[in-house]
Amino acid sequence: MPYGSERHAQHDPLLVASLAAGDLADADRDRAAALLGDCVECRVLHDDLVSISRATAALPAAVRPRDFRIGPEQAARLRPGGWRRFVAAFGSPRLAMTRQLGVGLATLGLAGLLISALPSFPLGMAGSAAASAAPEQDSLDSRDQAAPLVAPSAAPAADPSAAAADASAGPSASGTSATPFGGEAAVVPAASEPGRVSASDDVTAQNETLGGNDGTPGDGGGAVARDVGSADGGGGPLLPIASAILLAAGIALLVGRRLARRITAG
Amino acid sequence: MEDLRSTTVVDDPVQRRDLILLERARAGDLEAFNDLVVCYQDQLFALVVRMVPDRDQASDVTQEAFFSAYRNLAGFRGGSVKSWLNRIAVNAAMDTQRARKRRPVQPYPELEDESWQPPASEDADPVHTALTTERTTALNAALASITGDQRTAIVLYDVEGYDYAEIAEMTGVSLGTVKSRIHRGRLALRDRLADRMELFRG
After folding, report:
1. Looking at the complex, does the CB of residue B91 fall below 8 Å from at least one CB of chain A?
2. Is 0.85 exceeded by the ipTM?
């Protein structure tokens, strides 16, 4: 059987602390009282806790180091009037989420603008810009370089499924040239220069046979690209506009909150 | 503006005075608010410095509590102005404790100088005064070394005299948690004062 401290170590000090605080009722109180009657150390602990509690309650109040009264300028800053009041409310801790909201909106807006600026993105501004610039450049490129070099490999490179899809698109699909990234389709005037007739005609003939795929390197899905490109015709500027609005709203929130905090901070 | 006296049965002259001052402050009278500050600044600083045992920090927290009270005068919903101010101060002190916990710096400085406590009266027994000073210093040091949650609960219960339910509401925890913090906090104090318990016995 354990003796002294060894035995006391097995007792529950929280039970003794609860008894010292007067928080026990009925069975628990009887159990704790029996423990105190049986264990001297528990009794000492109990008395010490009561003494500490009394001493804590009797602690002298600390002397304040300064006057905490509020001056007129501080008061004006703390409770601003007019428009400042409205702006200051914006910076209150209750509206702390405006910062996160502002950052979120600005990030979304920025991301949207970046995505729409990518030349490969079909809905983007650059895509639209490329569409307007592409006819001259692409036609020259395809006639001057791509056609003689690529024409022989155009047929094997052509995707049969794309070709099938293209075939259903009809004659309007022939003679188009997709950008190297498969973006906006650009119309190429087929065989417009007499000196290039044979090569262009070959390509055009193959295109017509395969459904109009122009065989530009990496362009295995000209039809798909054209489909996206034609879908872009109506909704192109939507993403950049929405992104710009989001970015402006986010920045406005952040600037507003910063201004509000500056006003409240004086 | 809502008339606080009409919605609250106030027999206590102190509370009635507080409510009148608060109403005037809400109407824009800064002097009325400063009268309230004068009434409660000693008590509020004493409360805060026990929760945040760094005098400079406690001073800033107390000032911030009064700023917050002035800013949110419209948020007072009746009852005791003293309790309302205490609640604001406790929240401000708890925010500071949390910030301190997030980026632990040095432990609270030892309160060895006696500037924090009232001077002893001239007719006081010097031995008794010395004993009281030593006990207060030891207890303050022990209080500063326990966790902020335990310290807050003990100060509110033992020093400020709030009951468990009020402390639970103020600190946003359950009644059982408040009890547990007080019991464990006292046990922790006893551990830290183990070799100086003779100061407290008898």
Report:
1. no
2. no
